[in-house]
Amino acid sequence: MANQTPSDRKAKLETATQWLASQQDAMEKLLSELVEASSWTYDKKGVDAASAILRQAMPLPCTSIPSTQYGNQNVFHNALPASQSGTLLIGHIDTVFPKEKFSGYLSDGKLARGPGVLDMKGGLVVMTFALQALKLQGLLDSIPLSCLVVSEEEIGSPESTPLLRSLSKGVKASLVFESGREGDAIITRRKGSGSFTAIAHGRAAHAGNAHQAGANAIWSIARFVDRIQGFTDYQQGTTLNVGKVLGGIGKNTVPDHSEAYVDMRYITLSVAETLRARILAAAGEVAVSGTHIDVEWGPGRYPMEKTDASEALRAQYAHCQRLSGLGDGECGLIGGGSDAATTAHEGIPSIDGLGPRGKGFHTVEEYVELNSLIPKTQALLRFLCVGRSL
Ligand SMILES: [Zn+2]
């Protein structure tokens, strides 16, 4: 293994690439089994059952980190871990769909449909088969890599983020197998996201008999909503969305309580900091007399910011895609977060969107293009096998 020459490796890569070309049926079979195993984030039993199917198919030993709230987290180990300047492969097995909402696997031979088929069980199939191909050629244990399959990515990876961070240490490249984009464009940038609840406290009073004694919390929240919606700046890539407002008990009572639920997106951490300061200032400025507004910050994700190192990684992976008959472009800025943002924030060159192509994730229209399974897997195989010596 250690004494393999680059030309040995290239010959083995050739054989492994050809083997993969014969695996369409096997890949579709694993995809169908994973999709049939419904795994909504909040369905721990379902997520764990889907993980059991994946563990059977993966050619690496696995450590399951138990969770009481979500599915267990699964880390697959190699003889040489990713921390030795290797590659960290990242996926997630949960989906956004409860079983009753969307279930089952359907294929017409070209497109496959089902919950998570694109986001991102297709990506798990790509990871699994690339590793199987390496194993068949006796290459697997000579390549430093680790593989993490997260169980609660769709709600922002609240429990797995520390694990992601610790597995990032010493890693040279973080590859994330989220849904493949049109033209196989590789994702290098994602917006960061944040959330908060603004809570206005006022004073209740009879709307007819004691209007003057009241302090209207809804009025304050209305003014606050108007102010912060104005912080949206499409040019800068900053958006704020008040998505839900609550308050009051009826028209003849001055409301003493009102709440607004807000989502925000931004391109850089420094924009996020400025935005937070402006939001807090607005809360102080707009509250009407007798009321005040508290801001409670909620969960969020760091932005995935592009670096010279991540651009070099993208170019290298794009080359592997090109050699596998795929597109090699770069994706435009993405509004939604992923685990790639966590490894990028740790300073690890990170790219995303390396799973099979398709459309409609997070909707019941979700589908994957089955003819992208093999080339996407071949691209990963090439990257792992000969990487920088291409
Ligand atoms: Zn996803």
Could you list some keywords that capture this structure?
alpha+beta, 390 residues, binds zinc ion, 19% strand, single chain, 10 helices, four-stranded antiparallel β-sheet
Structural notes for this entry:
The chain is 36% helix and 19% strand. It is α+β, with helices and mostly antiparallel strands and 390 residues long. The strands form four sheets. The chain has a six-stranded mixed β-sheet with strand order 1-2-6-3-7-14, with helices on both faces. A four-stranded antiparallel β-sheet has the order 4-5-16-15, with helices on one face. It starts with 5 loop residues before the first helix and ends with a helix. The mean pLDDT is 95. The site of zinc ion has 5 residues, from α4.
Question: Could you outline the blueprint of secondary structure elements for this entry?
Answer:
Layout: H1 6-21, H2 24-36, H3 44-57, E1 62-65, E2 73-77, E3 87-92, E4 106-107, E5 111-113, H4 117-136, E6 145-150, H5 161-168, E7 173-176, E8 192-201, E9 205-206, H6 217-229, E10 239-247, E11 253-254, E12 257-266, H7 269-286, E13 292-297, H8 308-323, H9 339-345, E14 350-351, E15 358-359, E16 367-369, H10 373-386
Parallel strand pairs: 3-6, 3-7, 7-14
Antiparallel strand pairs: 1-2, 2-6, 4-5, 5-16, 8-12, 8-13, 9-11, 10-12, 15-16
Helix pairs in contact: 1-4, 1-10, 2-3, 2-4, 4-10, 6-7, 8-10
The site of zinc ion has 5 residues, from α4.
- Structural class comes to alpha+beta
The fraction of residues in strands falls at: 15-25%
Overall 3D shape: elongated
Low-confidence stretches: none
The secondary-structure element order is HHHEEEEEHEHEEEHEEEHEHHEEEH
- Mean pLDDT equals 95
Major β-sheet strand ordering: 1-2-6-3-7-14
Strand runs, count: 16
Bound ligands: zinc ion
Radius of gyration: 24 Å
| Biggest sheet statistics | 6 strands, mixed
Percent range of helical residues? 25-40%
Helical segment tally? 10
Distance between the termini: 19 Å
